[in-house]
Amino acid sequence: MDLEEIRKKLENVFQTVFDDEEIEIGDATTADDIDGWDSLTHVQLIVAVEEAFNCKFSVAETIKLKNVGEFIRLIERKAANA
Amino acid sequence: MPEFSIGSYIFGGLLIISPLLLIWKGRQRPVIFFLLNLFTFIISCKSSITLAIAVIWVLLPYFLAPFLNKKGAKPLFFTLLGLIYIYLMNYAWVPFIRLLPWNPLFKFIGLSYFLFREIDFVLQYEGLREAGVRISLIDYLNYMLSFYTLLAGPIIRYEAFVEDFYREDRAYFSGNELLSKLQRILWGYLKVYVFSALFNNGGDYWFERISETDAVWKAVLYFLLFSFFNSAFIYFNFSGYCDVVIGGADLAGLSVKENFNKPYLAHSLTEFWNRHHISLSEWIRDYIYSPVFKALLSGPCRKKAFLGQCVALFATFLIAGIWHGTTVNYVIYGFLQGLGMVFSTVRKKRLIKKFGKKGYREYEKRKLVGIMENVAVWTFISLSFAFVGYDLVGALGFLVIRGV
């Protein structure tokens, strides 16, 4: 799966978790850009991503993420190691 | 042993000496900082027994971390760490504590904050190694024992500490910058020794009146007055302390995380905890709320995410409350914070359901709504903070016994 495919699939997960089909994500997207993405809903997003991409993230990995670009690269690494 | 606090001569002396860290570079720098930290750590221990226990407590996670990557090792380690912590702190309401011999000398300054740093180090260890973050005994000890944050935080993370300590873009500051850092320290001392002292006196005064009164309405009035004085005391005391240590570290070219951002301007409890004791809020979010919520979402709350979120929030704030102190007052404090957070989250969900996301944002912008929310947050926080630092349960029990 290349980065663009990961981005598209991740966008679908975002739309489902935040109940908004108009959400579009890019590398620079952060929690400030998406309505409802706060520290409380972040875990829901992580679990939904784990299910969608069939991988597991540790606490250490998820708390370091600064934007969607880093998230996509983390998913790519996980998928490559799976 | 001399007392160690931000008002002690020793801390004052360290504040004056430590800017020399800006001059010392290379290998000398961590060694000199370590010597300052070691000196502070030793003088803060009440006896050789205290020092011996503290040394074991601090060193154990460093030497065990490389061996904790096997399945089940970390949960076992954290359970043992938690039990030893409860024992050393002497939690009065935990049954097994009463059965074990305990001595006040077992407790040492920084014990509760060491726990946070140790958990962060152990949980991050593998990631730190993979990312090539510098891990050495001297860096670990400086992270654990930094005299700036020894007393009461703010809670720092290992990676952030090491990155900051070894950053090379550190520049000497101008006269104006020096004045602004000194001004912050002075303002911090003013908050602690003038404002917080005044509110503390007021809090003490009204707290004593509660148990002396013979009428319920008077007890309620005195309780309200005590609560507001006490919450103001907590804010000025803790944020003042943070101003001193953040400003002091800044003088030595070190960054200590900001811990307060006008918390009493918050419009919800969630916002309050993102503005008050920020380093603790972020730590409990990452290391309690997230794993608990994740476990619930992957198990019993798979189809009930909102319920899982509420349970995780309640558990997180209850645990954080219990961490704050050893008496049953802190259990009630944690329970109230947990309930408050759940209420705040349910209310937000209901309002979004009623008005829609856009409508909710408009609703929140209304001036009257903002004022009402702010007053409600302030009142709730003051009433729940009444259980912090005072034996409110004892005072209320005394009133009941007297038949008021």
Compact summary:
The complex is a heterodimer of chains A (82) and B (404). Chain A is mostly helical and 82 residues long.
What this model shows, in words?
The complex is a heterodimer of chains A (82) and B (404). Chain A has 82 residues and is mainly α. Helix content of chain A is 56%, strand content 0%. Chain A has a single domain (3-81), classed as Non-ribosomal Peptide Synthetase Peptidyl Carrier Protein, Chain A. Chain B is an all-alpha fold and 404 residues long. Chain B has three domains: 9-165, no CATH class; 175-251; 263-401, no CATH class. Helix content of chain B is 72%, strand content 0%. The chains are: A mainly alpha (82), B mainly alpha (404). Chains A and B meet through helix 2 and helix 3 of A and helix 6, helix 12 and helix 13 of B.
Write the SSE topology.
The complex is a heterodimer of chains A (82) and B (404).
Chain A: H1 3-17, H2 42-53, H3 59-63, H4 68-81
Helix pairs in contact in A: 1-2, 1-4
Chain B: H1 9-17, H2 28-44, H3 48-64, H4 73-89, H5 95-99, H6 111-130, H7 137-145, H8 158-165, H9 175-212, H10 216-251, H11 269-275, H12 278-298, H13 305-324, H14 328-365, H15 367-385, H16 392-401
Helix pairs in contact in B: 2-7, 3-6, 4-6, 9-10, 9-16, 10-15, 12-13, 13-14, 14-15
Number of domains of chain B: 3
| Largest pleated sheet of chain B | none
- Which band does the percent of strand residues of chain A land in? under 5%
Percent in strands of chain B = under 5%
Q: Note the overall shape of chain B.
A: globular
Q: How much is the radius of gyration of chain A in Å?
A: 12 Å
Alpha carbon gap, first and last residue of chain B: 45 Å
The chain-level mean pLDDT of chain B equals 91
CATH architecture assignment of chain A: Orthogonal Bundle
Would you give the CATH topology of chain A?
A: Non-ribosomal Peptide Synthetase Peptidyl Carrier Protein, Chain A
Protein structure class of chain A: mainly alpha
Which superfamily, in CATH terms, is the homologous superfamily of chain A? ACP-like
Distance between the termini of chain A: 12 Å
